[in-house]
Structure formats: C-alpha cells, structure tokens
Amino acid sequence: MNNIRFNQDNSCMAVASDTESRIFNSEPFGEIYTNDSPVFLLKVLFSTSLTIIVPKEKDNRLLKIFNLKQNLKICELIFPSSIVEIKINKKRLIVVLKIGQIYIYDLSYVKLIKIIEIEPLGSQPFVGDLSNDDHSLLVIPLKYVSTVMAGKSKNNGIFTDPEPLVKFNNFAEYKDPKGWVLVYDTINLKSVLIMKCHSSSIRKIVISDMIIATASSKGTIIRLFQLNFKQSEDIKLTRILNLRRGHNSAHIHCLKFNTDCTILACGSENTIHFFSLKYNEDIIDGHNYGTSTLKTYEAGDGDEHETDYNISQSSLLDAESSKSSEDLNENLANLLISKPIPNEIEENDKDVDNSIKNLPYKDYFNNLVLSPPRRSFNIIRLKDHKPGFTYHYVKQFAEIIGQSSDHDTT
C-alpha cells in the first residue's frame, strides 16, 4: 500500500499500491475506478474528474493529470527529483520533491508560479498541509525553511526564487526551530504567520476550514488553532484548543477533520481517537480588548503546570504560577510569542528587512481564553493484520469511519 486518502470533501477515497490503483465512492460505498498499473500517489480533486497520478517508477519523477470521466490525459510534468507528496485544491497544485523543493502551480492553467527551497527530506515523509478553501494556505514546520532562510540552502541544480520565504534579523533566536510552524499564502505568495505549537518537533499538520491541527513527535497533546484571515487584512488567531490523546508517547500517523470540522480523528499505533471540537462554555472567541486573564499551560516533557497570566494590549504581565496534577502541556505563554530582539541587535540591524518581526503572532492572546486539554469521546482499537491490500480492508475501514462520523458528540 503506497497511498490511501479521502478527497477534500470526503466523497471518495483513492487507493494506490504497487499492483493497482482504485477509487471508491463513499456513499453509497462502491468502486468507481480501477487500474492494474502500479501507482505511487493518487489524488482526486473534490467530486470532479480531475485526478493526479504519480506512477510507481524507479525515481517517481513523473506526474500525470487526467480527466477520468473522459479518459483524457491533460498533461504530464517531469521533475528533477523524486516526488514525495502532492497537495491540491481548486486553485493550487503543490508538488513536494525529495531534494527539498516545493513547486506551486496555478491549477487553472497548470502554470508554475513559484519554487520554494526547503531542507532536503531524504527518507523522511513530508509534514505539512494545504487548505482546501480559496485562501489556499500552506502550513509547514519552520525547521524546513530556517536554514534556507538564513542563506544556507544546500539545494542546487535548478533556479528558484532568490528571495527567501522569511528574512530574519536575529536568526539565532530560531536556531532550534522545532515546534514552530510557518503559514504561507500560496495565492499572494508570501508568509503570513509564524507560531510555536509544541516544544518538540512537529510530526503531523492538517488544516481545514481555517483550523490548523498539529501533533508533535511526543504525540500526547494535539493542538488546534482557529484562524481568521481575509486576503486584504492581517491574519488573526481567535481560538486555541488542546486535545489529550494520552499520557504515553505515541507515533501519530494521521489527523483528519470531518466535513464540518466538528470532529477530529487522530490515528496512532492501532488506535483511532475521536475528539469533539464543538464550542462550549470553556472555549470562547475573544472580543474583550484591554486587560484580561489568560489561562495557559507551561511546556515541558513531564508534569503539566497551570498558570494564570494577566494580558494587556502591549505585554504579558508577571503572575504567579500554580501546579496541577495534569501532564505537562506546552507553554502557551511563549506559544506564538517570540522573544523581543535585544536593543543592541536592533541597533546593529536597523537596515535589515525583518518580515518575521512584522508577522502577526503576538497580539492575539489579549482576546483568548484557553482551557485544559479535552479528551476523546470515542476510541477505536484496530486489530493487527498482515501487510497487503484487499477490497475487504478498504470496505471495513470505510464502514468504521462512517459509523464514527455519525456518533452524537453532544
């Protein structure tokens, strides 16, 4: 099995393996496409006939765009390195290469509009996601681009945009970028947000309906960020929600929202957790400007500490911390808030363009109330089975997902 994915509206599921590729309709469940050729990646654009196919070859450098309904090949694209991942929405096609490049295409013309340099991925899977809406936001770990942005790109052989994604005045501040993510606007081709989501490296990222969900390599806490973004305005963070997967470390393989973003599914070793994302009394949008009280959770890898902070329009005020029996969560006092650049550095770097400094990530704690982590309302434990692909496994998986999505979370 090389790839198994739902499309953007969950209306169908694409399966790719070394022996065949298939597409299944979700409701009613049934096979609508099959091909006996080996396929590495298979993507379907919403409920359309537009399909992206990466044939399984020695180097996986070829990408084909098909209209399956008309059985028509629209075009072929050949890349300088192996394709690792593909992301697609109605406006953009994103192709990630093993050597550390992200190709951004205008899907309406299949026209290349930008190549982003990132760190070479090697044998590691790509971590990141592209939003399905018209904002077309690409979310990736900051560690992918931190070295490149400092002018130390190791990728050669093809011309890319000479301007970095983000320019740093004080790069030393981000020399250990684990836990940070970058939000990139693929429509206007610019970075719009940088924030710290975890204290350890980012393992999984998913974005849907302007909600970003992240999981770290530790896998105990999943964190959600609700964004408010208009193309003509600055991006705003309006909500943060913590979800408790468990107390023991786990390798999270998948994060998936349901259609209306009221449920998040988290897949780890033989376990699927389902979390309710509905608003309640302890999760609110902030509209109270001025001084407010912010409840945060100090970061670390051991026990969780709960701290109350008074937040003003301009700064965080000192406060006393109190410990709780919960496991340690991330330090939301430092989350999204970069340390101020020392005066002596500011004096030396007055002439340096600092787009990171201007990115909006500090001023939204004024209006947020954060709660302790929520726990899952349902857990499915999967039996171990031998590797391989059968129609029975796919049907069983689809039935499990369908039953869980119908669960009443109230």
From TrEMBL:
Assigned protein family: Belongs to the WD repeat PROPPIN family.
InterPro entries: PROPPIN, WD40/YVTN_repeat-like_dom_sf, WD40_repeat_dom_sf, WD40_rpt
One Gene Ontology cellular component annotation held by this UniProt entry: endomembrane system
UniProt entry tagged with the keyword Heme: no
Localization, UniProt: Endomembrane system; Vacuole membrane
Lipid bilayer topology: Peripheral membrane protein
Designated name of the protein: Autophagy-related protein 18
SUPFAM superfamilies in the record: WD40 repeat-like
Keywords, sorted A to Z: Protein transport, Repeat, Transport, Vacuole, WD repeat
PANTHER family for the chain: WD-REPEAT PROTEIN INTERACTING WITH PHOSPHOINOSIDES WIPI -RELATED
Pfam family name, one: PROPPIN
Annotated organism of origin: Candida tenuis (strain ATCC 10573 / BCRC 21748 / CBS 615 / JCM 9827 / NBRC 10315 / NRRL Y-1498 / VKM Y-70)
Top-rank taxon: Eukaryota
GO biological process: protein transport
